[in-house]
Amino acid sequence: MEKSSYSYFTWAFIVTVVGLALGAWVGWNFTGTISGTLSIFFICVVLAVLEISLSFDNAIVNANKLKEMTPVWQQRFLTWGILIAVFGMRIVFPLLIVVIAANVGPWAAIQLAIAEPEEYSRIMGEAHLSIAAFGGTFLMMVALTYFFDEHKDIHWVHAIESRVSKFAAIKGVEIAFVLILMLIFASFLDETESATFILSAIYGLVTFLAVDVLGNVLDQQQAALEGAAKGGFGAFLYLEVLDASFSFDGVIGAFALTNNLFIIAIGLGIGAMYVRSMTIMLVEKGTLAQYRYLEHGAFYAILILSVIMYAQSLTHIPEVITGLGGAGLIGLSLWSSIRYNRKHGVEDSDVTPAPHAH
């Protein structure tokens, strides 16, 4: 019997209830008033919705990579990977920024988050330029690598994608594109900020290339040992860095709503569980194969997110624009896929679901 779509979200619903109850408890402990508790409860809800809206494309890209991985590594990513995503990126990462930026120890950073949330938020804000440049560059490379592919034969926006794929034969074309865009944005910043932006962007580029090379080497070694070229630790590593890059925007955006690290961790942690549930559903139900342009919509959303992260080095862009823009593109690609299926008589039953990922 095939699982219903709702059943994939059982754990996400449980985490939502527990998380919101925890949010109310934190609210009461920090404010001691019902209005303060309700306010913090509402912020947790908004943060969860923000994370979900920003992460549709993340779930689709995760599913795209997961379907190539062995069941063992699929399971490892969906268990260990989600723990790293929730605790590593939503709690450890913001603390690590403060540790580096303020040159204090981890315990001092935690105390700063509890006792002086305004100062903690200010330090996070000062690190925003570096984070935007690093994360924007990494995500831009992820998107451009998808489009600059000479073997890519399915095109959603045919006029653009067919031409772009022809340029894929030129070695390093996507790197050149990123470097040009990096220099354009840096030219609008003052000398100090420009140097920080370029250095952070280069770190993002080097990280992408290093993860790509290391991932291929590790997976080739595993394939030689197992006799099957399936994704293992290399693909797992790629997905973790990709998840981290997606998280930058949500974590930084969260500080616009609250300075409290614990509220941010609760709200974004709830959202992260929905991303996991969506990923499993997409893999098991074969949704990516069923809707041929859905993947395209996700990578367009990633490309736009990367440009927005670059643009945030110049001006503030509300997170709602980022979230709605990505969700809108994915919705449009889904609608295009449904139209294609109707036109060509493709039925849901024509697609074979992937093996279970958990």
Automatic annotation (TrEMBL):
* Alphabetically ordered keywords of this record: Membrane, Transmembrane, Transmembrane helix
> Where does the secretion signal sit in this chain?
none
Q: What's the source species' lineage?
A: Bacteria, Pseudomonadati, Pseudomonadota, Alphaproteobacteria, Hyphomicrobiales
**Where does the sequence pass through the membrane?**
7-28, 34-56, 77-102, 127-148, 168-189, 195-214, 261-281, 293-311, 317-335
Keyword Hydrolase in annotation: no
Q: Does the keyword Transmembrane helix apply?
A: yes
NCBIfam families of this UniProt entry?
PRK14013.1-3 (NF010613), PRK14013.2-2 (NF010616), PRK14013.2-6 (NF010620)
Name the UniProt record assigns to this protein: DUF475 domain-containing protein
